[in-house]
Amino acid sequence: MNRPVDRWDLPLGLDAGSEPLFRRISRSIVEEIRRGRLRPGARLPGSRTLANTLRVHRNTVLAAYEELAGEGWTESTPARGTFVSGALPEVRRRAAPAGPSRPAPEAVGFDLRSAAARDACGSGSVAPLLSLGVPDVRLAPVMPLARAFRRVLRDRPEDLLSYGHPQGHPRLRAALAGMLRTARGLAVETDDVLVTSGSQMALELAARTLLKAGDVVAIEHIGYRHAWQVFEQHGATLAPIPVDAAGLDTGALEALTERTALRAVYVTPHHQYPTTATLSAARRIALLELARRKRFAVIEDDYDHEFHYEGRPVLPMASTDRAGIVLYIGSLAKVLAPGVRLGYVTAPRPVLRQMVAHRACIERQGEHTIECAVAELFEQGELQRHARRARRVYHARRDFLVRALRRELGSALSFEPPCGGLTLWATVGDGLDVEAWASRLREQGATLFTARHYAYDGRVRPHFRLGFAPFDERELGTWVRLLKRTLRGASPGG
Amino acid sequence: MNRPVDRWDLPLGLDAGSEPLFRRISRSIVEEIRRGRLRPGARLPGSRTLANTLRVHRNTVLAAYEELAGEGWTESTPARGTFVSGALPEVRRRAAPAGPSRPAPEAVGFDLRSAAARDACGSGSVAPLLSLGVPDVRLAPVMPLARAFRRVLRDRPEDLLSYGHPQGHPRLRAALAGMLRTARGLAVETDDVLVTSGSQMALELAARTLLKAGDVVAIEHIGYRHAWQVFEQHGATLAPIPVDAAGLDTGALEALTERTALRAVYVTPHHQYPTTATLSAARRIALLELARRKRFAVIEDDYDHEFHYEGRPVLPMASTDRAGIVLYIGSLAKVLAPGVRLGYVTAPRPVLRQMVAHRACIERQGEHTIECAVAELFEQGELQRHARRARRVYHARRDFLVRALRRELGSALSFEPPCGGLTLWATVGDGLDVEAWASRLREQGATLFTARHYAYDGRVRPHFRLGFAPFDERELGTWVRLLKRTLRGASPGG
């Protein structure tokens, strides 16, 4: 969209030269038109404005504009102003500088390493619509957030708008510490909490603090690729450990530690990503004991803690960490909205101090206006009310999806209804080709991520992930019918 | 401040055991009190609520509460609820678990590398009040920002609250591209712009994209330490190049390139940080030609472009980059507010693509709600109006400070009135001890950063930096008088 150019001053690079000043100005404007900086239809500044900007006499600018109009570069309308012409004349080489008007877009004048799957962390080309563990942003407390934002800006603008601490605004840290004490069994103070721009940044800071090249990090063999990329970026070697219905196989982990020194293990023990399994109580105790004995760190990523539907609440491993080995990462993405980038970490104090220092190097601080607005939502109880409402909605949607899948897909799918979280992990029946099924779905415009997308070894396994939270029952019904229709393409001979 | 605990569910870790359930609950609550998770005065959940959370009968909870009250752990008021007692009884060891109730705060159960000046990027212990190059946040368009935030949330919530692109919201990128074309001579499109969480992140992404261990980066010998730390963090060796009244000494830079292969140079050519010198036209041409010939990158940090008071506008080096060697970094921190973390980069497309990919690894994306709100401020012309107003105010404050310094401090200081930016670089007269002067100021509660703080070699030089933008004339007068009073401590025998 062409905005009037005169909202901004239009400084021109005036070459030194022997030609009259008005001509140097008009040539400069022609150069900008050729380079694409001034577009057809763009309005040039008024002559007084440009004269002021360039520190020249207004008549000089008028003379330049006259020459431009005479050559067809611009068109003037008395009431409206001077515009770059829609139909541009051929380039006059009289005073145009040699060389291209802008570098070839892909040209780089120095050596650049090849990207090599560099965008594995990126958003990828297609969003896996059916497999996203995202909340329903239609439920998000949008207007309370907007009102809170306005209030904090009105009441404390200087505090929020000046440079702040990289650890995060103390008001949000206090609110988070209170929530972590009360709801998650973590004995933490305000200063034990680091607010990050999303949990991804928390992983980045953990990696910077813990890892050097060659360190070994144990991971769930089917798990969260965005985390793996961060660890590998910092030179770590990843050791995949099998995950089953009780979560990470701590026996296999122990066997690994007998032959390899481990630096850290990365786990999602509450609702394993993506299988939704909860790490059993026995394995939690075993994992903490093993980590204490072998002196490796436990990176506990509790990304969707708020949404637990069945069974007694399960407290994080961090709540029983007496040895100071757990880095506990959480996120407000699922409980508030993914677009609001707020995550948090708590860890032993020397570890947290280093993470804070690293954060300051990457990004001096977070967005304190947003942090304070969200702190208000905590203090008012608004966030908690929203979490309870959302949990009821997601619980109902989970139940609806479970019934619909059983009814419509019968033996084609088997699954454990997830005891929490925003997604379901389904296993396809024998004889069904899960990749072919996903392919048929893609042809219908619906992207599903199969187990292959989450597996460290990239191998095909007969599972896929379904996200149910962002869809109401009507939409869930549509997806289930689509799954059923495309099922035929997944069977041999179908 | 004690918030009622019952705003959050209170999940308790109930140990398996042979004792009656009500006693296991009361012991569990005692444990939480001892660990500090439940504070004196904290209100326990109502019995129905806790029974619901724990999936037990309400009577069981009532029995647990009775035992707690009987032992003195809690106090009940019929109308108000049950609270953790202010005076806690001695610990009963009957069923308390062995070991400390929380790990010693400083205990870390794995090896942690020493921090080694790790917080050099951090905010440091004391803000250099007199030397900050910050805008006056009292002038910031706070209410327009709040209104824009509300509008974008109201109109496009799903777009903004869902996961977005790591390159930044297209609306803000389009607005920035328009500004860069019009006001800075850069022929860029929407997709040529990467929005970052402040310019610090842009430096981090540039370092990740360009640097490997051992690469040499030329820097201004007095300059921006936060950038140096980022380069060193990525394994670069820094080569300081002298800066004089015409900016970076490109002759010295060329001499360096004769004996060392350079990977990049980091410059602040518009208003050199912190000396405020503008890189001369001749040196700009020389620098670009040298970089093209020797194939090294130019990282141009144009952190306060909007505030230029004298002389013709100077376009960035990026505007004449035909070889594809300039990474151009800007920031909205000075024109909007430092607390709003928005910076931007434009670079040759293959370079930008890698920077975007790295950004996604660190932080999946920026804060799109804020990005869109700021885009609105661009589109409405509000940001431009604010920039013009602020420039007039800062220009007047600069003039006031210049007059006041000349009048009050006479020959004790010499300086060039800065042609732009938010700070002034002063040289102290012969025989004056600049460090002693700063020391006297610190005793008066005012922190001034001398040249030593900005010098790569850390050596004492007879200069200091004064920030004038955030102070009105009354406040500037106060600072100048303070400088005069403490001057006596800076002279020999004073």
Keyphrases for this structure?
homodimer; alpha/beta; Arc Repressor Mutant, subunit A; seven-stranded mixed beta sheet; three-stranded antiparallel beta sheet; globular; disordered N terminus
Give a structural overview:
2 copies of one chain form a homodimer. The first copy, chain A, has 494 residues and is α/β, with parallel strands linked by helices. Chain A folds into 3 domains: 88 residues, Arc Repressor Mutant, subunit A; 241 residues, 3-Layer(aba) Sandwich (Aspartate Aminotransferase, domain 2); 105 residues, Aspartate Aminotransferase, domain 1 (Alpha-Beta Complex). Helices cover 39% and strands 12% of the residues of chain A. In chain A, the strands form 4 sheets. The first copy, chain A, has a 7-stranded mixed beta sheet with strand order 3-11-10-9-8-4-5, sandwiched between helices. Chain A has a 3-stranded antiparallel beta sheet with strand order 12-13-14, covered by helices on one side. In chain A, helix 1 packs across helix 3, helix 6 crosses helix 12 and helix 7 runs parallel beside helix 8. Chains A and B meet through helix 4, helix 5, helix 6, helix 7 and helix 8 of A and helix 4, helix 5, helix 6, helix 7 and helix 8 of B.
**What is the helix content of chain A?**
25-40%
CATH topology heading of the largest domain in chain A: Aspartate Aminotransferase, domain 2
What's the helix-strand series of chain A? HHHEEHHHEHEHEEEHEHEEEHHHEEHEH
The biggest beta sheet of chain A is recorded as: 7 strands, mixed
Percent in strands of chain A: 5-15%
Q: What's the CATH C level of the largest domain in chain A?
A: Alpha Beta
| Quaternary structure of the protein | homodimer
* Number of beta-strand segments of chain A: 14
- In the CATH classification, which architecture of the largest domain in chain A applies? 3-Layer(aba) Sandwich
- Mean pLDDT of chain A comes to 87
